[in-house]
Predict the 3D structure of the following.
Amino acid sequence: MVSRRRNLGFACRRRATAAETIAIPLGMASSKPWAVPETRIVQAAAVAFGGGFLPLDAVYEILLRLPAKLLCRLRVVCRLWRSLLSDLQFAAAHAARHPGPLVIAGYDQNAGDGTLVNIMDMSGQIVKQVRRIDGSDKVMSMDLDLVCVKNVDSGRYRFLNPATGAVYHLPSFFADEHMCLSFNLVGDPKYILGQVPGTGEYKVLRIFYHLSRVLHCQLFEICTLNSGSNSRWRRKEAPGETVAFCKFTRLVIDEIVYLICSGLHRFITCHDQVFEKDMIITFNLETEAWGPRIRGPPISFLNDAAQMFHNFGLPKTKQLSLANLHGSLAVVHGPAPYMDFWILMDIDKGQWVKQYSMQFEQYGHLKYVHPLLVLGDGRIVVHQEDTGFLQIYDPRTNSFTNSVELNHYSAVNMYTGNLLSLDK
């Protein structure tokens, strides 16, 4: 097998020069939308199959059946194969043929045995691995097709594309208006990544606390990512109310950022109180302006909530978080005594529907339950922190099945990128 692979590579190199000048006519025109010239595709196919010719459609179908991990390896055979397997239309067709889902998980600093990020299928098999460059790198989050990495030693942040290797370094300085405030910051900033559908631009909204005399205030900045060094933070006015810094209280769907108000979050999670106020603040990444507030779902507690929590052994502090389910905004709340998933049906009317209610055998201390994906059969991929596994919840049987082991990862999400993409 080794000698055959070497011969294949030699044959590709030997015939590549002739391929630039000799045009081999096609027996039949293919209907497949290829950006690579068809004569070169046929020649590459002829080399790969011992000099004989296969119809272009046959080569296309054979390659579409192969997993992305193997196709990435085949790119190094020769330039013809690289052009063939890097074509944008082929990458899109392959993604449609292999819809996943795929899980992306990242490691904390000095963990992972030299690995920074793994992309896996739902059985836990690794299909893509990104090696660690610096032992002090820590994966903070994964959104869209990018990974947010913090270098703990330098304090610098960057976004990494695990498929292409492209790196976007975040500016190390502050917006001009905030330069004089940079010495009184409290804690780490929060970075929220989104993509503008119309332009494809990545934008990052940054939120950090500033200590002003005896008060804490939040500062907001935004920047547009690019592969160069000319990105700059731009100051944005605060929305008038502080936003929650807890886990899963920030979310982007399309170009809209959703943020939970800090005050309501505290009352609901710590004091079992609900107020008729707007719960969610919105920010438009395209216009870079604050949008309308959204009234939250009709969360309620039983009359004797404290006694109920004691009887059920429920944690005193509750969860109130945001999730993206099927492209819709969802609010996760509980246990009270169930974990309820509310889906926003009409943003203008503030209409919510309780789509799911999960019941657990035991709760103990509060561990976040975060839904990641609704599968085609209605089951839900859930990350429940205290289990060490990604789980699949079946609402028909109220049962959980362990899927991917997550014990040593610092962040996990569903991967939405394309592993065959070379577009930087």
User: Anything to note?
Assistant: The longest helix spans residues 2-19. Helices lie at 2-19, 38-48, 56-65, 68-74, 79-85, 88-97, 262-271, 305-312. The chain has a mean pLDDT of 79.
